[in-house]
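subagent[fold] <- orchestrator: predict structure for attached chain, return tokens only, no commentary.
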Amino acid sequence: MLDLGEPMKPKTDEQNPKLRKRAKGYQFSLVLEDVEQIENLRLRYQRLALEKSNRPVDITKSEIVRAGIYALIKMQDPQFFKRVEEVEELKEGREPKEKPEEK
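subagent[fold] -> orchestrator:
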């Protein structure tokens, strides 16, 4: 009988760049001010990129949020704890729909 060795194992996310870079959709709650801040940061990046490269550069809101995550990861524990404690806690879920007025 022919010995083929051990069966092949499927690649893990770390071994396969296509799997590692696949985006996953998540939903989370933001107050209107947070949405506006994300847009302001996006426009700020575009302005800075234009100044540096003399060409327009686009960036998505998702990339801004991910940049914030990376910044939090690099923080020392005291700074990280302080920043997370400063964030307003929000109720989960959607706002209830308003019922139409009955006549």
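orchestrator: received. Logging for downstream: The chain has a mean pLDDT of 81. Residues 29-86 form one domain.
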